[in-house]
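User: Sequence recovery, please. Input:
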């Protein structure tokens, strides 16, 4: 399967709309979870050398590594998890935010989470992890400004 290269859509808003449209195709949450797992498999390869404590995201029950790069004009994020569903959640976040300017990241609330009903269908620990991931992305953008 080809690794995704972010951004996939021209703007964060376009990415969120595309996510909402894709998830609308599925009739139930078992299908949506399977789609999340499939998306997680499309994450770009993450170098083993970067799977260190320094790059570990705190606040997640699963192990998540994330590495930012770039500057205020364009921030990129490489990330992966040891959990298939969490890798899918990472894919969605990177689809919206990776490859964007710090200003666009900070101006774009993660509306896709409510739009697809994600928060209601994740365990409290996964919701906390997703919040930690989105917070890390936002904090990185804030520091880059």
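Assistant: Recovered sequence (145 residues):
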């Amino acid at each position: 399967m080809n690794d995704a290269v972010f951004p996939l859509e021209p703007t964060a808003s376009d990415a969120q709309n595309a996510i909402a449209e894709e998830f609308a195709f599925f009739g139930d949450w078992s299908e949506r979870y399977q789609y999340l797992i499939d998306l997680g498999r499309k994450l770009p390869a993450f170098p083993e050398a970067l799977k260190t404590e320094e790059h570990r995201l705190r606040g997640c029950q699963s192990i998540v590594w994330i590495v930012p790069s770039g500057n205020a004009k364009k921030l990129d994020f490489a990330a992966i998890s040891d959990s298939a569903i969490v890798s899918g959640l990472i894919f969605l976040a990177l689809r919206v935010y990776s490859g964007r300017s710090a200003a666009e990241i900070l101006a774009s609330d993660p509306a896709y989470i409510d739009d697809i009903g994600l928060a209601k269908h994740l365990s409290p620990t996964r919701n906390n992890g997703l919040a930690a991931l989105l917070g890390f992305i936002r904090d990185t953008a804030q520091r880059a400004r």
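The longest strand covers residues 64-71.
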